[in-house]
Amino acid sequence: MGRIDIILPDRLERRFREAVLERLGAKRGNITKVIQQCIEEWIIREELDIAYVVATALSHAKDIIYSSDLTPQQKDAAYRILIKRFEEDIYRHIERMAKDIIERFKWIV
User: Fold this and answer.
1) For residue range 71-103, what is the model confidence (pLDDT) as tens digits?
2) What backbone phi and psi angles, to 5 degrees, belong to 77?
3) How far apart are CA 39 and CA 108, in angstroms?
4) What is the pTM of this model?
5) Cα separation, 48 vs 52, whole angstroms
6) Which terminal Cβ of the chain has fewer Cβ within 10 Å, N or C?
7) Closest Cα to residue 30, out of 40, 19, 41?
């Protein structure tokens, strides 16, 4: 198990400890549990941001294809190829991400 030491401003630390105590009680390990959950949620938000960027990039690529001087049939074919290649790559990436997230959550719960 890894270890990360952090320094927090006094006010933030006090507020955090009070919030954990109020919601979960004084049970040993509650602070660690909440920090782990916060880190996981932050990672997931970052991954969702990446998904948004990918979708935006795909939309931009579609715009490039459809604004080209290709015939409508060529544009459609080019876009289908783009989507197929994108799907092949993204499925492999998402599968790796999903397995990684599952492993991360195993040590939180």
Assistant:
1) 999 999 999 998 888 888 877 888 888 888 887
2) -65, -45
3) 10
4) 0.52
5) 6
6) N
7) 19
Is the CB of residue 78 less than 8 Å from the CB of residue 70?
yes
Domain ranges of the chain: 37-106
Under 8 Å between Cβ of 75 and 66: yes
Give the pLDDT score at 109.
52
Handedness of CA 27, 33, 34, 35 (dihedral sign): positive
The residue behind tokens 């459609």 is 76
DSSP-assigned letters across all residues of 6-50: ----HHHHHHHHHHHHHHH-S-TTHHHHHHHHHHHHHHHHHHHHH
